[in-house]
Design goal:
alpha/beta, 17 strands, eleven-stranded mixed sheet, Alpha-Beta Plaits
Length: 438
């Protein structure tokens, strides 16, 4: 069989990694697939900058239409990111009957339904292993070896920037702002880190995982999303005192036909393996009814891991084409007509334990007032830490309470009431706790 011809749109850092991998491991790929994979055209606005790889004359082009209109190109890799023109390019390539490989989590989280429907009509595949977890092969596992399972949950640490910042805060007792600057200096955080630190990047990945695990469409804008920018070194310290570490967690669960979809800082028990995922590493934990709990761990971003996932998708498509099949698998692993739209569980109905950090005046009756308000809303206290000042009872002090399981709506109502008290000096910080991760 002749080589599989591929077109690449977007020649940035990841694109250069794909080119280098295809060049350096060409013999490995051919020995495993039985044919070669050739990048026939690479389209980018910048065709002069040195990417550190050698490109044959005529391969690097400005006009993306040369890729769409080339009948020899059977697979298009989209690596420009964002919503537009990525969406238009992907849909045009599909209309031309070309398979798609993409790492664009944002595009799939918001416009996946439209793209998958277009691919079904044309009988082509959309592969996106690199969109979640970089080089971690979690999507392939969900759609492949674990496909026989009903999944009950998908929970993970999916953003290396946030995990690096929280790890440094934990290890050094530092504050968020200082560690963000370090992360930016080291290249782990963008100059504008909003998508990372406010949880949006993680929510994109969670939307994809929920669709694959539970076979449901999900409105990305309905995912509860909260970042780590409000977490202080004090919160990290008190979490450790209670026996937890704080991680930005993506949580997807299904129960009684309702889906939980939320991203927020979460306290994880120190004995749980997720609490030991540090630095820029990611980990994704799945629970299937037959396989039980399975955890995937590795580098969630970077040139080489992401290129590995992209070329892995190319190899899968090459094998499909060699077998003479136009479309072996639907993008979400479920038959197109079997993808449902399950209702989301409102955040107010979520049940969790909580760590509440109050900044209150150091005077008699303060704790009684706080405990009374919590009790009025059906919230019981499991344990507590209270510090005192010797110099003045007018100085705010932290009062930190760990609750038993409570309904989120009740917590919100209680805190709204408590925050209005004259004894409270700052807005109360609350962090959810996930104890049941076994």
């Amino acid at each position: 069989m002749s080589d599989i011809k591929v077109g690449l749109i977007g020649f940035g850092n990841i694109g250069a990694g794909v080119v280098r991998l295809l060049q350096e491991n060409a013999d490995v790929i051919r020995n495993k697939v039985g044919t070669g994979i050739t990048l026939k055209k690479i389209a980018d606005l910048d065709i002069t900058s040195d990417r550190g790889v050698t490109i044959a004359p005529g391969v690097l082009i400005n006009d993306v239409n040369e890729i769409f209109d080339d009948p020899e190109i059977s697979v298009v890799i989209e690596l420009i990111g964002g919503y537009e023109p990525a969406k238009s390019f992907v849909l045009k390539a599909i209309e031309k009957g070309k398979h798609i490989v993409t790492a664009n989590k944002a595009l799939l989280a918001l416009h996946g339904d439209e793209i998958y429907a277009a691919a079904a009509r044309k009988g082509v595949e959309v592969q996106f292993e690199a969109a979640v977890g970089g080089g971690i092969p979690v999507l392939t596992a969900i759609k492949g070896n674990m496909a026989a399972n009903n999944f009950g949950s998908v929970i993970g640490i999916m953003n290396g920037t946030c995990n690096y910042i929280l790890t440094r805060m934990t290890q050094e007792g530092a504050d968020f702002a200082d560690m963000l600057k370090v992360a930016q200096q080291l290249g782990y955080a963008e100059p504008d880190p909003t998508f990372d630190i406010e949880g949006v990047d993680t929510a994109h990945k969670l939307a994809i995982l929920i669709s694959l695990c539970f076979g449901t469409k999900i409105d990305f804008n309905s995912i509860y999303t909260e970042g780590i920018s409000r977490i202080s070194g004090l919160d990290v310290k008190f979490a450790n005192d209670f026996g937890y570490r704080i991680k930005l967690l993506a949580i997807g669960k299904i129960s009684e036909g309702h889906v939980e979809a939320r991203v927020h800082p979460t306290m994880i028990p120190l004995h749980n393996p997720l609490s030991e995922v540090n630095g820029v590493f990611n980990a994704i934990r799945l629970t299937g009814d037959f396989v039980g709990p399975v955890m995937f761990y590795g580098r969630g971003a970077g040139q080489n891991p992401t290129a590995s996932a992209i070329v892995g998708d190319l190899i899968g498509l090459a094998r499909t084409m060699q077998a003479g099949a136009g479309r072996r698998m639907a993008p979400l692993g479920f038959l197109d007509g079997e993808v449902k739209t399950l209702p989301l569980k409102p955040m107010a109905n979520i049940v969790s334990k909580y760590m509440l950090r109050f900044s209150a005046l150091d005077k008699p009756g303060v704790l009684a007032s706080i405990a009374g308000s919590l009790g009025n809303h059906g919230i019981s206290i499991e344990s507590m830490v209270q510090t005192t000042h010797q110099d003045s009872d007018a100085t705010p002090v932290p009062i930190v309470i760990k609750t038993h399981e409570a309904c989120e709506g009740s917590i919100q109502e209680a805190l709204e009431e408590i925050n209005r008290l004259a004894i409270i000096c700052e807005q109360t910080v609350f962090i959810r706790i996930e104890d049941n991760l076994e």
